[in-house]
Design brief:
Length: about 200
C-alpha cells in the first residue's frame, strides 16, 4: 500500500511539474477545447476578483497547455471581435496576451508571453474610445504613453524587443493595444486610467 501511495505521489509531482497551469486553469483550457472561452466581466463579483489579480510568469513556454491557452485566447478574441485579449480575461492569471500588430501590413495577431515594458515616452496621450471585452457596453478615454519599448517572448519562443506607438484609431495604435493588454496581466483596466 505504501508503494502505491508513493508511486501516486511521484506521478502527481512529476506530471504537475510539466505544466505551469493549475487543475482549475486546465479545466478552462480543455473544456470544449475547440470553442471560445467565457469572457470574464467586471460586473460579476467573482470575475472582478480574477480580473483585479496580478498574473504570474510562464516558466515553461514549450508546453502543450500554453499552446492550448493561445488557441483558446485566439478563438475567444475572434468570436468577440476584439483587437487583443489577455489570459486573465478568461480566468487564467498568467502573463500571456494576444494583440493585433496594426503596425504591419498584414495586421497579424501576435502572442506576448511574459511581456515587459522596458521604457516609454514621458508624454501621455488621451486615447479616445477605449473599450474592453471585460467592461461590457462602455467606452472611455484612457491615459496612455505615446510610445513604449517592450520585451516579450512570441508564439515561436523567440525573444522580441520592439518599439510600438500609440495614436488614434484611424492609424497605428499597436502601442495602445499592448498597454491595454499589459494592464490586464497586472490587474488593471482602462477604467482605472480615464482622462477627459
Amino acid at each position: 500500500m505504501k508503494k502505491i501511495a508513493y508511486f501516486l505521489f511521484l506521478l502527481l509531482f512529476f506530471t504537475s511539474c510539466k505544466s505551469a497551469f493549475s487543475v482549475s486553469e486546465k479545466k478552462i483550457l480543455y473544456s470544449e477545447a475547440d470553442s471560445p472561452a467565457k469572457v470574464l466581466k467586471i460586473t460579476n463579483k467573482k470575475d472582478s476578483l480574477i480580473l483585479r489579480t496580478s498574473s504570474k510568469n510562464i516558466k515553461n513556454i514549450k508546453n502543450e497547455d500554453l499552446s492550448q491557452l493561445v488557441k483558446k485566447l485566439y478563438l475567444t478574441m475572434v468570436t468577440e471581435d476584439g483587437v487583443g485579449i489577455a489570459a486573465p480575461q478568461i480566468g487564467i492569471n498568467r502573463n500571456v496576451f494576444l494583440f493585433y500588430r496594426l503596425d504591419q501590413d498584414e495586421k497579424s495577431v501576435e502572442v506576448a508571453i511574459n511581456p515587459r515594458i522596458i521604457s516609454h515616452s514621458k508624454e501621455l496621450i488621451c486615447f479616445q474610445n477605449d473599450g474592453c471585452l471585460s467592461v461590457p457596453g462602455k467606452y472611455g478615454n484612457s491615459k496612455r504613453y505615446s510610445w513604449i519599448k517592450v520585451k516579450y517572448i512570441d508564439q515561436n519562443g523567440k525573444k522580441v524587443k520592439q518599439k510600438f506607438y500609440g495614436g488614434t484609431r484611424s492609424g497605428d495604435y499597436t502601442g495602445i493595444i499592448f498597454q491595454h493588454e499589459f494592464d490586464h496581466i497586472n490587474g488593471k483596466l482602462y477604467i482605472d486610467k480615464i482622462c477627459n
